[in-house]
Amino acid sequence: SGGKDGEKKKKKKKKSRAPPPAKPCEKPWSSLSASERELAERLRFVRGTWGDDPEADGRDGCEEDWSDIPWSWAELDRAALLPTALALGFEERSWKGGAAAKPSRKARGRRPRARRPPLPGANAVAGPLLGLDGAALEPSPQPRYLASRREWRDLPDWIELSDERGRGGGRPFPPLADDPLFRDGGPALLPFLPPGGEPACCRGAVLVCPGGNYEFLHPREGAPIARYFAEALSLRAYVLRYRLLPRHSLHQAHDDLRRAVQYARTTANGGPVLAIGFSAGGHLIATG
Q: Which residues pair with 246 in a beta bridge?
């Protein structure tokens, strides 16, 4: 009987093991769906640091360099990005981002990539909010926002910027409630001057029109751009808060642009006025 039992055991078929799930980033960037790419970009991945893509120069964000990913696993939770990482298949043991991140063994022998120096703009001087006639605007004690507070949780990520807003800590944008671009208080100008205050050598002015689908004004396309021109070119630079849909019309937005250009000319010391726009802001300038 013992022999028969041994033969039965030998005849049993071996159970096939399921293949291990693919690790995040093994899928080439070019084959990511639109929704997957959007999730990856929220985590600061870009082409060249994601997957074994033929156009990525052989770099693999999951295997080599995580220095551009600023969050540790715990910080992902605090930045409300943990669901995003989980949706892409990351786990705590496979996540290597954050300040303590180190390149993997595969990349330790490689020369670290040189960091680009920060763009000018940090030393530009922000002025008080102005009306389109140049008069100072007093902040309203009861501001009206582009979206009611109960809708703030449903705002697009590029407006909410939960990881980039807040007082102190080096965060570049004010809290949502204090952001003048998020207020529906009528057209206005956010002025920026060169580090020394008044322009000393150059003539001209710059007018920046952020995009945002004519519904919002993108924070990254406003103050950082104006600050750059103010410091790099030693010019007065203004961010235009133009009126938006659906409360206002495109005709009113064009009127805001024309009035802003007229005022900028009075401060340009006889020089030209450069108008630069992004997305809807570019469309506004091109058709204004």
A: none
